[in-house]
Amino acid sequence: MTYELVIGDRGYSSWSLRGWLLFDAFGIPVKTISARLYTDELPNLLKDFAPSRTAPTMRTPEGWVIPETIAIAEELATRHPEAGIWPADPHKRGVARVLAAEMHAGFGALRDHCPMNLRTSYTDCAPPEAVLKDLERLETLWAWAKAQTGGAWLAGDYSAADAFFAPVATRIATYNLPVSQTAMDYVSQHLSHPSFRKWRAMGLVDGADQPFYFRDYPTRPWPGPAPLPAKAAEGTTAENTACPYSGKPVTHVLELEGRRFGFCNAFCRDKTVADPEAWPAFMALVK
């Protein structure tokens, strides 16, 4: 038995993103079980994960249920000390824990005015004063952390602190929030991170748009890496006979630069169409 992780819609559930990054970004295998937000799916699913009330919720290989991303991070770090979820250096580890704790409990105005939405990007969202104050606090924390640790990420190498701030980075990207170039550089690191690119690619195709997240703002292109121009195609003729992810027979196909590649189901194909370079197993076929 492996870990299980209950998640909500990938395009919208910021807490689920944090929880999933604690696995994927640190090389810890996990089986995800998804449920659509604003329906009965999630509460019904969580009946089997007491005492949890929301996503993400982890079940350990022994069957223990652990909700809340702070608890998930600590439990995984204890079980997998080699993964680097928290920095090995005591000072950097302390900085990372300060950051994760404040992110877990704070920034309410930013969360409320700018809910995570990975499916669009706006030119402006008219952030009110309370949101601007949250952004000022972000700038202060990020600058302090980098001054303390001297790394490319908040506590040196990528750590749980960065996983916790990933949804905030996406909010800055989605709503074109006013931050310094230094802060925007940090946001860009998140948008290019391999695990985040996989999550967003899946989030673009794993269900219909959620009306709650619609905002009537002018849109712009997503500010992260531009995807290769793949598209879904009819038929099953492809260069490969087995799905690059599951090894199962090809049933769905995409086209990329005049070539055809096959997958075992629509989701495998569509997440690849969304961002081909997010998937190393697919790019190995292309090369």
TrEMBL record:
Domain GST N-terminal, residue spans: 3-84
Organism: Stagnihabitans tardus
Name of this chain's protein: Glutathione S-transferase
Source taxon at top rank: Bacteria
Residue ranges the record marks as coiled coil: none
InterPro entries: Glutathione-S-Trfase_C_sf (IPR036282), Glutathione_S-Trfase_N (IPR004045), Thioredoxin-like_sf (IPR036249)
One Pfam match: GST_N_2
